[in-house]
Structure formats: structure tokens, C-alpha cells
Amino acid sequence: xxxxxxxxxxxxxxxxxxxxxxxxxxxxxxxxxxxxxxxxxxxxxxxxxxxxxxxxxxxxxxxxxxxxxxxxxxxxxxxxxxxxxxxxxxxxxxxxxxxxxxxxxxxxxxxxxxxxxxxxxxxxxxxxxxxxxxxxxxxxxxxxxxxxxxxxxxxxxxxxxxxxxxxxxxxxxxxxxxxxxxxxxxxxxxxxxxxxxxxxxxxxxxxxxxxxxxxxxxxxxxxxxxxxxxxxxxxxxxxxxxxxxxxxxxxxxxxxxxxxxxxxxxxxxxxxxxxxxxxxxxxxxxxxxxxxxxxxxxxxxxxxxxxxxxxxxxxxxxxxxxxxxxxxxxxxxxxxxxxxxxxxxxxxxxxxxxxxxxxxxxxxxxxxxxxxxxxxxxxxxxxxxxxxxxxxxxxxxxxxxxxxxxxxxxxxxxxxxxxxxxxxxxxxxxxxxxxxxxxxxxxxxxxxxxxxxxxxxxx
Length: 459
Ligand SMILES: [Zn+2]
What we know:
alpha+beta; 13 strands; 18% strand
């Protein structure tokens, strides 16, 4: 085993939380801000008018540094050795910059100022609308997004913000409507002290972080604070009310009253093959604990290995199947995706669902060899990592965002994150048994599976 990973140190300065991993031998510095505001927060009034605003806001904010003086901030950063970007997610937005330590003062000033004291300029907003529009059109160029939108509309039927994450046309229509006043209002509403957490790493000391935050950040209360709790608790299970879809008769299971017929079919006259997707809700213990979260990663890996074995190696029906898990207070899910020649799709959908049903049987066991090999693959991924301060902070930051997603109703500033080192994560994964895996299969609600395909013809 390698040396233990440096843990982030938590700092509270001027009422803001920051996590720091200092390494005075590093030649670089990383600065990041995470804000609890994402697709979830858009249109909480259940209209659709705000859908897409976070993405535009992210673009605008990256150019809202007063030092750039109403010009694109790329004009400044092109002349400095640093790379910056942002990204918009379901429950948060992040802004980060990494550069040589000679740029530290500007990098810290940039991130803290755009978050706390941005300058919004009408010309910049128009320019960034054009950039976002182009990005959305790239997504539209691939018709598969229509399949995902149809499926996620079922999954998130009661949250317009989440439902519209995949509604590209609506985001394009909304772009035209968003005004400077909307941008200013949005900043006031969500970029408040309790919604922000910072991450720093590299050649920057704890005391430098404290003085920068104290100097640059002023406490701001929100106009209102809408946490996100899209789940209800029943006994010891977290239920996902947004999973409204009820499947028709699949894989020998009696279907209930159906309001949507599955599989959903989306026609693409140009398609040369068929793309399919299956979304399965998974109950998690409440409150979610970290060990079972790590077991969930193994669960996802095992489904991937076994489905590829079944569909590709044994039955030659696909080239490959992808399996991804998503854990959040908006619902835990397993997403299975792949492409195939048109005539195979119904067989594949049925085999995937049948696979899940079969694994719920009390007598069923995932073979020990498969579990052992998959645990080994997690260890391999870990052993490949090098361990600089900036790479470490990336690991802990993703742990933080995962934990924040799973505790969606808690403001970021109040989140007590039980950081687990990569070494401990491996131990957690190592501790999973075949019985743990079967329990996870049994926590999957196959009767609420949402699935469909996009291709030239209905099969
Ligand atoms: Zn973008």
C-alpha cells in the first residue's frame, strides 16, 4: 500500500468554508468555488421559464471579474499561465482555476471576486448567450438526446428543472428571454454565504487562504433558500417520488396501471443503428452512509461486467454496454446504455431487465470470482493515481460533491463531510460481500424501470 493521502484541512474565514491541501513544494495553485445551485434549483415554481439559466450564468460569471473591465476574461488569462473553467451540474455549479504559483494573487482574486462581487455587463451576457447556444446546438446535433429527454421526463416528472436538463430546445428558447435583471436576481438568490464552499490546493498556505477570504468575501444572506429534498422516507428506505413511471409487463413481472408505455420509442429516420437506455431507481438506506455508497460503486461495476458478459461475449448482441450509477437526494439510479443493430433491441432490453429480476432472487449469488476481480479493478484505478496536492484535492472535492448531492437539503456551509481517504474507500469496497450485492439488487425497483430506444424503426 502507498503512503496515506493528505487530508484537506477545513477553514472557516469570514463565514465561508474552505478546504485546503497545502504543499509548499508544489509549483502550482488550484482555486475552486462550489455553489449549491444547479438544474434542480431552476424554476422551483414548476414553470419552465428558468430552465438553463445556471449554464448561462456560469458562462457570464467566468467573465464577470472587474479587473477584465467589461471585456472577456480570456483576454486577461491568455497572457498568464493559468487555465480556468466552470461546469454546471444537477445540484451545483463549480468554478476553478489552476496555474503557476506566480499567478496565485490573481487566481485567488479572480475566483473570490466573481463569486462575491461580479460585474454583469449586457454585452458580455449577449456574447455568452451565443456561446451557450452553440453548445446546446452541438447536443441537438446528436438525436440521442431526445431519448434521454423522454426517459428523464418520466424520472423527474415532478421537478421541472431536472426534467429540462435534457430539454435542449426549451433551454434555447429560454436563453433569448433571460435579461440582465434575471442574472442579477439569480446571483442574489443563490450566491449566498451558506451556499458556497471553496477548495484550495498546491503552494498556498492556510493563512494565505484565510486572509484572502477575509479580504475578498462579504457575508450575504439569500433572498430565500430552497434546499432540495426530493425524497420521502418510508421506514428505513428512501423513496423517490419523482419516479412516477410505471412499467408495462416486463420480464415476467405483472405491470401495474400504465400511464406511459415502455419501451419508449423515438424515431430517427437517419439512424444507422439503435441506441437504448434503461434507468432503474435504487433505494438506499436512510440516512445514506458512506460504506454503502462505496458498495454502490462496486454494484455498478459488477452489473457492467455481467451484462457485457451476457450480451456481448455470450450472445453477441452488442459491442458494449455501459452502466453508470447516480446517487443523490433526487433519486439513486442505475443507468444502462448501449447501441446495437436494430433487430436486437427488444431482446437486449428484456435480457437486461431479466438479469436484474434474476439477481433479486434470495438464492442468487454473484460469483465470488467476479466480485474479487472487480474489487481488484478498483484497486488498480487507485494504484495508478499519483498523489500531488492538486490531485488529492480533486478526489476530496468529488467526495464533497457526492456527499452534498446525497444531503441535498443541507446548505453547503452546514455540511459536515465525513471525508474518507482513497485508501479507506478501497477498504470499504473490499468489505463488500455477495450478500451485500444481492441486497443492492433487491433494493432496485424493477417495476419502476424507465426504458426506451431511438432508431429508424419501431421494433
Ligand atoms: Zn458551457
